[in-house]
Amino acid sequence: MSILSIWQAIQAVKKAESLDTRQVLGLQAHRFRKLLKHAFQKSRFYKSYYSDHGITEADIDGILPGDLPIIDKNIMMENYDDLVTDPLLKQADLERFIKESPDPGSKYKNKYSVVHTSGSSGTIGLFVYGPSDWTLGKALSLRVTGAELMLHRKKRIAFIAATGGHFASVASFYNLPRSLFKLLPLSISSSIEEIREQINRFQPDVITGYASGLNLLAEEQLEGRIGINPREAFCTGDPLTSAFRQRIERAFAINPVNMYGSSETMTLAGECKSHHRLHLFNDWSSVQLLGDDLKSAKAGQVVVTNLYNYTQPLIRYQMSDEIVMSDKACPCGWSFPVIESMAGRQEEFLWFSKNGGGEDFIHPIVLAEFFVPGLERFQFIQSSPDTLLMKAIVRGEKSSVVAAIREKMNEILSGKLLEQSVRFDVELVDEIRNDAKTGKFRLVVPFVKL
């Protein structure tokens, strides 16, 4: 990612910040029709899928997003090779690339950025961005973090998250220009002792990553176990709760800025720095919320169209996140609509007893991003302080997939020095049911002490 291409993308993104609501919606509609036409012409899946619903390319000019059928992760993955617009992109090859090229900054065929996730649904998803798609997605995140990060001296940025795979946030971090930034990736799967030692030595100007990761750093700072003086903090990946925000402010005397993104959308929303209200970036996305009756609502499940990914178009894609929109405008000057509240991953940390005493945790997002080829859907169940079970639905040679699962989990446990104290097992199943009480899927089921 060249500095010039990022700068140009930032300028394109910045133009919309001064537009009024009507102008932004006009821009959104233009980009939607352009993407839809591209999908009709380049994606075998969309052409067939829409034809089955009585929609032809001739209908594009009059089509509204709500006129199109919804897709979800299952539909996307079942039709992956036909959905992507480059016929050279194949699901099996991408899965092999992720396994054989663990460096998050590496590119498939030296061109495509590949990210994967299960999110909170437990179903594996692959997402590919071409060079221009990826650069635009990066520019949207810089709308929040600020272009000033790129214009002055080289800054030290510490990033605390799951760093051992092709996840959207870490891949974006690794692709920051090294000529402008000094980078420290901190694995949330590392022992707390290692995290303390690395960040004390690095002394970052900026801390970023999971909100829960920054909260962990704040706790360490308040307890006197680390001593750093960052000037900026940016949170993503999991909810920035009021308790997290207050603790980060108390520890570092800075107000963290929240971002909302995903593998499907990179940066879907971000806070304005002046009022810290979360704005939905609807200049490069089209979002509809569906209530329980599957009708449009101001609060409900997110159905999104990513308006800049032309490599893997996601048109009316249903996510598992739920948000509530606000009726109030923000005085910051942005016309982007305001998100009142949101619910993403709500799984708790899994705490395990360590041999020799003490405890350490596995972050739920580390488990949400668990990936090995052949693993289609899974759930983690902690039945005691020293046992963990994965229920798994797999395809292909079962024994080799299970072996890969065990190898991957051993890496996670070893990073926390838990490999000798935690008993891990895999149960192959044909179905993983939703929670009987809530009706919703639970990716992680922690042990509850009585």
The secondary-structure class comes to alpha/beta
Could you tell me the number of beta strands?
Answer: 19
Question: Roughly how much helix do the residues carry, as a percent range?
Answer: 25-40%
CATH class of the domain at 137-259: Alpha Beta
Instruction: Give the spatial strand order of the biggest sheet.
Output: 4-3-5-6-7-8-9-13-12-11-10
Look up the CATH topology of the domain at 137-259: Rossmann fold
Mean pLDDT: 89
How many helices in DSSP terms? 13
Q: N- to C-terminal separation?
A: 52 Å
The low-confidence runs, each spanning 5 or more residues with pLDDT under 50, are: none
Radius of gyration equals 22 Å
Give the name of the CATH architecture of the domain at 137-259.
Answer: 3-Layer(aba) Sandwich
Shape: globular
Strand content: 15-25%
Major sheet size, sense and barrel closure: 11 strands, mixed
Gist of the model:
The protein has 450 residues and is an alpha/beta fold.
Description:
By secondary structure, this protein is of the alpha/beta class. Among the domains are: 137-259, Rossmann fold (3-Layer(aba) Sandwich), CATH 3.40.50.980; 350-445, GMP Synthetase, Chain A, domain 3, CATH 3.30.300. Helices cover 32% and strands 25% of the residues. An eleven-stranded mixed β-sheet has the order 4-3-5-6-7-8-9-13-12-11-10, sandwiched between helices. The chain has a four-stranded mixed β-sheet with strand order 18-17-16-19. The chain has a two-stranded antiparallel sheet with strand order 1-2. The radius of gyration is 22 Å and the shape is globular. The chain starts with a helix and ends in a 5-residue tail after the last strand. The model has no long low-confidence stretch (mean pLDDT 89).
